[in-house]
Amino acid sequence: MKPNKAVVKVITPKLEEGTIAPLIREVLEKLGEDPQREGLERTPERVDKALRFLTSGYRTDIRKLVNGALYEVKYDEMVVVRDIEFFSLCEHHLLPFFGKMHVAYLPKAKVIGLSKIPRIVDAFARRLQIQERLTQEVAQTIQEIIDPAGVGVICEARHFCMMMRGVEKQHSGAMTSAMLGAFRDCKETRDEFLALVNH
């Protein structure tokens, strides 16, 4: 089986000039609230600022983020960064989901600065997301940038759209994975990754 071809799609939404605060104020009115009362008077501006931060990943240039932190090293053992915390917004309800991600790769000729991997995770988490796509985008991006023998990503998350509404299950979590190259083709590589994650 041939390694998966990684394709990184950089989404750059067209941002309108101005603020979304008036729209938030209108939403508050539609919900039956008074946007002029003391507690809500500045809420539209705060929500505007928060949403722009939580979706800042759309405006992140991955190449600039990596900033040349690729190093030629004769190292062919697995590199694992565990327990990378992330926070994202579900694209279906705009409610948060959060958790941790474990990322591994098998270098061929290059390694990446370790701090860049959590930054890549944040770049994709700070978009409107679903967990499955988030997991795949992180794996494909690392495959594209480093060109390793393989990449493995495991994502564990809890979703407020399940906890606060709908089925209202507070203790349910979701796990997703993306395995590329040697991680998909070789059971021993997958098993080693899982053992290191669960250690």
Descriptors for this entry?
199 residues; alpha+beta; two-stranded antiparallel ribbon; elongated; disordered N terminus
Summarize the amount of helix as a percent range: 25-40%
Compressed to H and E, one letter per element, the order equals HHHEEEEHEHEHEHH
Count of strand segments: 7
Structural class: alpha+beta
- Total number of helical segments? 8
* Rg over C-alpha atoms, rounded to the nearest angstrom: 20 Å
Largest sheet: 5 strands, mixed
Strands side by side in the biggest sheet? 5-2-3-6-7
N-C termini distance: 29 Å
Shape: elongated
Low-confidence stretches: 1-7
What does this 3D model show about the protein?
By secondary structure, the protein is α+β, with helices and mostly antiparallel strands. Helices cover 36% and strands 25% of the residues. It is built from eight helices and seven strands; from the N terminus they run αααββββαβαβαβαα. The chain has helices at residues 21-30, 43-54, 62-66, 116-125, 131-146, 160-163, 182-185, 187-197, and strands at residues 70-72, 79-90, 96-106, 110-112, 128-129, 150-159, 174-181. The strands form two sheets. The protein has a five-stranded mixed sheet with strand order 5-2-3-6-7, sandwiched between helices. A two-stranded antiparallel sheet has the order 1-4. A hairpin with a 5-residue loop joins strand 2 and strand 3. Helix 1 (21-30) crosses helix 2 (43-54) and helix 4 packs antiparallel against helix 5 (131-146). The longest helix is centred in the last third of the chain and has 16 residues, at 131-146. It is elongated and about 65 Å long.
